[in-house]
Amino acid sequence: MGTARKRSWSFSRQRSYEYCPRRFYYDYFSWGDQDEKLVNYLRRITTPEQLAGLIVHDVLALWLQQYRQIGIAPVNLQEFALARYRRSIEQSREFVNTIKEDRRPSSSGPIFDQDLYREHYFGSLFAGQQSIIESLQNFESGSVWEAIRKTKRKREGEQLWLEVDTNLHEGRWIEADLSLGLGGADGLRIYAVFDFGLKRDGKLHLYEWKTGRITDKAKANAKQQMAVYALWGLANGYALSEIVSHIVWLGSADTHFDLEVTDRDLDEVRQLILTQDQLENSKTVHHATKKRGLNNSFYVAERDNFPQTDNLRNCARCKYRMLCGFTKAQLPHRDITLMPLAATPLSDPPSTAP
What we know:
By secondary structure, the protein is α+β, with helices and mostly antiparallel strands.
């Protein structure tokens, strides 16, 4: 049994459940679970490519935040990003060693556990570094930044560039209600953390950076994300015809897609939100108490109510797979590690490590 503090919806939360209901439980309801300590460790495990994407998003937020304030782009951001990438990897190796030697860790950040995630570790450190370099170069030289840079930041005292959101833990959110077509989920917090936004030519322009590969599935997911962001625009007084979405693939030179979200797109994402909210409500129990005069609300979930996926390929890539009791023979990939955390120090990374 595990609990969660609040009821919310986000695109990543939706994707987690679609990937595997059991993974969703570990991602969001592990507080109080019998394996809470191990789950908390596994949840923070990432890959060099994922870390590179996070750093690119953070650095672009700093870039746009400074330009919004003083009209000058910062210098040496690529060097700053690469230094942070290398530092994160070194801190992670130190952290993993202290955990496996049963010592208290000295820092908390993303974890690269090469013993657990060998297929994602070897050979990918250099790819993460290259992703950072190429993404920042493509942004700086691309037409999207040129268009953003030429847009006035203020007009007659009105701020035309939206506040750059650097808080990835909270971010922008709206509350579901009837006016958004979400009356069945009243009070649900919906996160809409777009990467950048500005007002130009009487319209609201919302931007989403992507550092992964361009695939049909990635395009479809990005379009759904932009529909969620359009809900944020509606909640903030814009008409749907006044909202323009920009999906920017930073891994390829000057590759972006501009789209206008339709009523059909909004209906599809509304249905996603309502269905997921009803599903979670049916599998959890809400408790509302008062402590020291303050409302203390939380949701309780049973692990068994969130079954494992039938897609074993997803299981082979899942960072929680050791908790599901699989053996190598049951999974499509044979070069993975399924043993519990070993009390041995990590070996040195390959020579391609930065």
